[in-house]
Specification:
The complex is a heterodimer of chains A (1056) and B (274). Chain A has 1056 residues and is an alpha/beta fold. Chain A is built from 39 helices and 31 strands. The chains are: A alpha/beta (1056), B alpha/beta (274).
Chain lengths: 1056, 274
């Protein structure tokens, strides 16, 4: 039987109730099989939690509490967590420890760099040099500078997601090189030396002319010409971007024929760069270097993790696949996995697809739910072509039948019809036919809306003004909210639009930031994750306090605190204090939390960095101060994000094996500044990227950045596949292609750009990019419930042009500002169209009234756990009886008293009087030698044990002796756990005896015994609480001195 | 002071600074420090040593210096930077040595501290990376920079804002403005204003170093006078422009808050967004 026939593929278009469908299926499955046999994977922890909790809620509502409880035993989670479970269960079969440390997602890259440092160093010289010639170090206005190490890391990550081992990675390098060579300009037989000479000659001719009176146009190239001339004079090569720049120099007519001829000579010589043999050598050497470094690093990384018992997320998947492919493990697992659900299937990486295919071959039935139209994570290693092929293969195996969810529960009719018309043809051309992918209808009703669901707002003015224009328009429609009625999701009730109903989708994080700023200028609250958490006064206050706790010499922190605590009457109190004769005292006098912070500094060694941040936040004056600034909700959100960052810092330190310190946290806040979280206010406009909008919906969605054009991933590492996809082995024939870009910031007119784009691989990359951008636009258009607004900029609507199929343009036509319908596929859709322009920002209305909570005294609570051995007490104990049980134990040689103490405890614990002497001696000898307690003799220890036992029997005749009694109980609100060395039960009461291997003088013995009184008293209290019987006699046994000492609390004065 | 008078008041007058705890510098700064230390070793007073000697000295001292003053470069994540420094620092210093030899310039000293008083409480102390001498031209100053972009230093010279060079020029030799140049180690560019014999590359400057220094002194008096009147002006605030002293010769920098850690005191950019 074809295992694919056991898979049901469900195509769920946007807003068609995919999650509901999965939950219904799971609930049904609980009836027919053991819930523990169900596996469900999703792409986020939140999604997994939603599915399991909604399914359980259904089961509870149906009175099936047992099923709901048992469903907790099912495997629900992200692909990683499910794989992690499988790996842990099969650890021995995988020859791994069952206690594997999982490297958190962010920690793997740093760990890799540590593991591969030597490899990187080996390749650094060569790759640094080529990187320089590729212009990696050139200054650039935007974006991160290229770095060969990033290329190596990307190759490693892609290689692992595609199941490649180090050899596979190395071979990918050769294939990359082979595929690249075909795209380069053919060599014309010129040698590198001849081409270099021609450039040198031309530069030498030109440079002296630069001293003359040149036009502005010619002078702007002077720096490049001089720089290039100096480089060649040093006997070095100009970088390839400089070769390219030299082809673009231009003199003006007024510079005269001599200068023009010289410039032309330089251009002619530089124009040879595409045919320069050394360009090929550099490209080849770079590719080989990057792939060799990646392959060696990958091997080093795997060794590094194996030696330390660590695995990362990709290891979890790789090892799980190993289990699923092993016949024995597979058989065992097959008994426990009967039913598999895969959500968001379209976003699977090739490795994950291999896992799902293997799971499907094992389980009785699988359901893969997804929407190929929403595959937008190509940049995160998902492969839409692969998942689409998988969907097709499953359909073919099931007799061309495929389940589709095509009724929209989300969007109004006009939106649904428009999406069908706009996207239908292009999706059909992408192999996603309308019969499977178009909406058949909507379940929404049209009553209660006075406006059509589509609108076009044309943004006018400069780029900066367009954000302002859109913000002003948002403010305007909120002013006429009654006419923009929206339907409540839960029951469809119509109500006026609110700010929180609106989402603005942007193509980049940068534009999200600009849009948020523009909205804020219109006095609108914005919900957006944005930079600048550490720039907010409330976070600065807390961090300044933490800094001063960490370092009392940080006078700046003290001044900042004084500034934050200054009142309106004396806002410059901090400045006056800092300028006083004794500035430190003066500053401290105006910071009301100085004493609290000093107290925290005293405890600094007891607190983790996150605990210290919490301790500062708990100070009532800090809370009052922050609340007094108003807008407390948002400030608390920020402070919560600070707490989260502190915990994350501790976690990453844990994963890296580095200490987490307060100063480290303060540094991390500077070097890796956290973002401000989204506001949770219901009246905040949502601004987000198209990518982050996936899975979400809003009553009114505004699509911006419609001038965006797709960029093929041609010059960065990407996964390629040979031939048709084999679903039985999705990882077969996969390799990583990487064509490095040798021209730095020179992106156009360098020959290589056009050749690469025109090549079959280039065209394929272009097609992939266009298709992914089309899907992203679909995701954007299907977020709207009631209104979908297009906000095209003046620069055009290049993104919508992706919807054109074949040669016919304008498949979708937005109306001009003057009005007219919106057209798609020749159909007209009612749409409101208008031009919007920037308006003046509103004046700041002043601070909102602040509400301050009543402070409460912080209550100091005792710790949850009490360990008797660490017990300290204010009550004094004394020795009230002393028995000499026998002589001191003789010690020979150097004694490690800690080891001897442990050894004696172990002998006394194991020694039972009933055994014969030979056995007791043998056991004692063995224990003492394991602890290397050679200074004491086994026979002496046994004799001491006998003397103690004899004393016990003599003092408490008929009493029973219990050794190493575990203790766990609750006293008040605290948990007490420990182990009592010896407990004597005698006539309805208990006696506690603790061994202490103290060898000192008699006076010291009394002191030491008294010090342990608190520990024994706590044992006694716990015994009394557990048994209800008295436990009043407490003894310290010192076998090395032969003494047994009874301790008791010192009697209050006057009662003796 | 010229970039933000408030910062000068807080840091240099009131001495408010972060405490003992110091951040580990990033790789670029470490390599810069390393290059300075290498320069100190290979350029002792006197004529510049031959190339071969310089190369030998760098090879002998490089690793020990990394361990002593730039140990974080030995961290795994800095392997690439260290390898680059191993190539670039010796090449850069070798190029400088070659230039100095060709021009017959000798080393007076590296890391030279000079003090000078200019009246009215204006006292200056500076430490020059390299003080050099040519029998014909006299003294010259070279300031070493390890920077990714040559643009900023080039613009400083063009706009007559090379305050550091101007200051060194003023204190290197009493009563005379000593010419100076920046040596950009990464780019191997030795650039200075016209007439600077220590420059390989001449930049047309709108104000020479002597004029820059004279303007700087005049501005210092204006800024100090403002502080004495009780005003500290945070130049990043948009309103600051209305309170600038009249007659400033050196216009304040455009982005004074970029690397400033005092913004929690002047409250610039406090709550831009709601």
């Amino acid at each position: 039987m074809n295992p694919l026939s056991r898979i049901s593929a469900v195509v769920a278009s946007a807003g068609t109730g995919k999650t509901t469908r999965i939950i219904e299926d799971i609930v049904r499955e609980v009836d027919s099989r053991d819930p523990e046999q169900i596996v469900a994977t999703t792409f986020t922890v939140t999604a997994a939690a939603e599915i399991i909790e909604r399914a359980r809620s259904h089961l509870f509502s149906a009175g099936r509490a047992n099923g709901a409880a048992r469903l907790l035993g099912a495997r629900f989670g992200t692909v990683n967590s499910v794989c992690g479970q499988i790996v842990a269960e099969h650890a021995f079969a995988l020859e791994r420890s069952p206690y594997l440390g999982v490297v958190p997602e962010g920690g793997a890259a740093r760990l890799l760099r540590t593991a591969a440092a030597v490899v990187f160093e080996r390749h650094a010289r060569n790759l640094n040099a080529i990187g320089d010639r590729f212009g990696h170090e050139d200054p650039r206005a935007v974006g991160k500078k290229p770095d060969w190490r990033d290329d190596v890391l990307e190759v490693i990550e892609l290689g692992r997601a595609n199941g490649l081992d180090p050899d596979g990675v190395r071979q990918s390098g050769e294939r990359s090189l082979g595929s690249l060579e075909a795209q380069l300009a053919p060599l014309d037989g010129s040698t590198a030396a001849a081409l270099d000479r021609a450039l040198v000659d031309a530069l030498e001719l030109t440079v002296p002319l630069l001293d003359g009176d040149l036009s502005k146009g010619a002078m702007k190239h002077a720096d490049l010409l001089l720089r290039s001339a100096r480089t060649v004079q040093r006997g070095e090569q100009p970088s390839w971007p400089d070769w390219a720049r030299l082809t673009k120099i231009e003199a003006k007519k007024k510079d005269g024929p001599e200068v023009n001829d010289a410039f032309d000579a330089v251009k002619a010589a530089a124009n040879a760069h595409p045919r320069h043999p050394r360009l090929r050598e550099d490209l080849a050497s770079y590719i080989r270097g990057v792939f060799a470094c990646a392959a060696d690093s990958l091997a080093a990384f795997q060794r590094f993790k194996a030696e330390r018992g660590l695995i990362d997320f990709i290891d979890q998947e790789t090892l799980a696949l190993q289990v699923l492919r092993d016949p024995k493990s597979r058989a065992r697992l097959g008994e426990r996995i009967e039913r598999v659900f895969v959500d968001e299937f379209q976003d699977s990486s090739p490795l994950q697809l291999a896992i799902f295919t293997a799971l499907a071959g094992m389980a009785g039935e699988s359901t893969w739910v997804g929407d190929p139209k929403q595959a937008i994570y190509g940049f995160r290693n998902a492969d839409s072509a692969l998942t689409q092929a998988a969907f097709d293969a499953v359909r073919a195996a099931n007799g061309s039948s495929q389940q589709t969810l095509s009724e929209s529960w989300r969007s109004r009719d006009g939106i649904v019809r428009f999406v069908n018309a706009a996207f239908g043809p292009v999706f059909s051309a992408m192999g996603l036919p309308a019969k499977d992918h178009a909406f058949t209808r909507t379940r929404r009703v049209e009553t209660g809306f006075s406006r059509p669901p589509l609108a076009v707002w044309r943004l006018e003015g400069t780029v900066a003004e367009q954000h302002g224009a859109l913000a002003a328009q948002v403010r305007e429609i909120l002013g006429e909210a009654e006419s923009w009625s929206v339907a409540r999701k839960s029951d469809g009730e119509i109500r006026p639009l609110q700010a929180g109903d609106i989402a603005i989708l942007c193509r980049s994080n940068e534009n999200v930031g600009k849009m948020a700023t523009a909205l804020a200028a219109q006095d609108l609250h914005v919900s957006v994750e944005r930079d600048g958490l550490t720039g907010t006064p409330h976070v600065q206050l807390v961090v300044a306090a933490a800094r001063w706790v960490a370092d009392a010499s940080d006078r700046l922190a003290l001044a900042e605190l004084a500034n934050f605590f200054a009142d309106d009457e004396r806002p410059d109190a901090w400045l006056q204090a800092a300028a006083a004769d004794a500035p430190d005292d003066a500053l401290r006098s105006v910071v009301p939390i100085v004493d609290d912070l000093n107290a925290l500094r005293d405890r600094i060694l007891m607190l983790t960095p996150a605990e210290l941040v919490d301790a500062v936040l708990r100070l009532k004056l800090v809370q009052q101060r922050i609340e007094a600034w108003g807008n407390a909700g948002e400030r608390l959100d920020d402070l919560e994000a600070l707490r989260g960052f502190a915990l994350g810092y501790e976690e990453s330190c844990g994963a890296e094996g580095t200490p987490a310190t307060l100063n480290g946290l303060i540094l991390a806040l500077g070097s890796d500044p956290p973002k401000r979280p989204r506001s949770l206010r219901p009246d905040a406009v949502q601004v987000t990227t198209y990518h982050r909008a996936k899975g979400l919906e809003w009553p009114l969605a505004i699509l911006t950045d419609l001038d965006h054009a797709p960029k093929p991933r041609l010059f960065q590492p990407v996964a390629e596949a040979d031939g048709a996809i084999d679903l039985a082995d999705p990882l077969a024939g996969r390799w990583i292609r990487f064509w490095p870009w040798p021209y730095g910031t020179q992106k156009k007119n360098v020959d290589f750009d056009e050749r690469a784009e025109a090549s079959p691989i280039g065209r394929e990359a272009g097609r992939r990019a266009r298709e992914e951008e089309t899907r992203l636009l679909y995701v954007g258009a299907t977020r709207a419930r009631d209104y979908l607004v297009f906000a095209p900029p003046q620069r055009g609507e290049a993104w919508l042009e992706l919807l054109d199929v074949g040669a016919s343009p304008n498949h979708v036509q937005l109306p001009k500002a003057a009005g007219g319908p919106l057209q798609a596929e020749g159909l007209s859709f009612a749409a409101e169209a208008l031009a919007v322009s920037a308006k003046e920002a509103l004046p700041w209305p002043g601070p909102a009234p602040a509400f301050v909570s009543r402070p409460r005294e912080a209550k100091v609570r005792p710790p949850l756990r009490r360990r008797p051995s660490g017990e300290e007490t204010a009550d004094a104990f004394e020795v009230i009886e002393r028995f000499e049980l026998g002589p001191r134990l003789p010690l020979t040689g150097d004694a490690d008293m800690e080891a001897i103490g442990n050894a004696l405890h172990a002998v006394f614990a194991a020694d039972a009087g009933g055994d014969n002497m030979a056995l007791r001696l043998e056991r004692a000898t063995s224990i003492l030698s394991r602890w290397k307690a050679f200074p004491v003799q086994p026979a002496d220890v046994i004799a001491a044990a006998d003397r103690l036992e004899a004393h016990i029997h003599g003092r408490w005749p008929g009493g029973s002796i219990l050794r190493e009694v575990p203790l766990s109980g609750r006293i008040g609100g605290q948990l007490v756990t420990g182990r009592i060395d010896l407990l004597v039960a005698h006539e309805g009461r208990h006696i506690v005896i603790d061994h202490k291997s103290y060898p000192g003088s008699k006076a010291d013995q009394l002191r030491r015994a008294a010090e342990h009184g608190a520990q024994l008293a706590l044992y006694a209290k716990a015994i009394e609480a557990a048994t209800g019987r008295p436990c009043e006699e407490l003894y310290i046994h010192m076998p090395l001195t032969g003494a047994l000492l009874r301790v008791a609390p010192v009697a209050p004065a006057g009662l003796g | 002071m010229t970039s933000c008078q408030f910062r000068w008041v807080v840091q240099d007058v009131l001495r408010l600074s972060r405490g003992r705890f110091a951040q580990i510098p990033d790789a670029d700064r470490l390599i810069g420090t390393l290059a300075h230390a290498l320069a100190e070793r290979i350029f002792p007073s006197g004529p510049v040593a031959p190339d071969a000697d310089i190369r030998t000295k760098i090879e002998a001292d490089f690793d020990a210096l990394v361990r002593e003053i730039a140990a974080p470069l030995l961290q795994p994540e800095n392997a690439g930077e260290l390898a680059a420094a191993r190539e670039r620092a010796p090449a850069a210093l070798g190029h400088l040595a070659q230039f100095l030899r060709q021009r017959g310039i000798e080393i007076v000293g590296t890391e030279q501290t000079r003090e000078a008083a200019f009246g009215a409480g204006f006292e200056v102390t500076g430490r020059m990376d390299m003080l050099v001498h040519n029998p014909r031209e006299g003294l010259g100053v070279i300031d070493l920079k390890w920077t990714r972009s040559a643009k900023r230093r080039c613009e400083e010279l063009q706009e007559g804002r090379a305050l550091q060079l101007a200051t060194y020029g003023a204190i290197a030799e009493p009563g005379r403005s000593v010419p100076g140049a920046y040596y950009l180690l990464r780019q191997r560019r030795l650039m200075g204003p016209a007439g600077a014999f220590v420059a390989e590359e001449v930049v047309d400057a709108s104000r020479d170093l002597a004029e820059t220094w004279s303007d700087l002194m005049a501005d210092w008096r204006l800024w100090r006078g403002l502080a004495e009147e009780g005003t500290a002006l945070a130049l990043g605030l948009p309103e600051a422009v209305e309170h600038l002293p009249v007659g400033l010769a050196i216009a304040p920098a455009e982005d004074p808050c970029r690397y400033c850690d005092l913004t929690s005191l002047c409250r610039i950019g406090g709550e831009a967004q709601r």
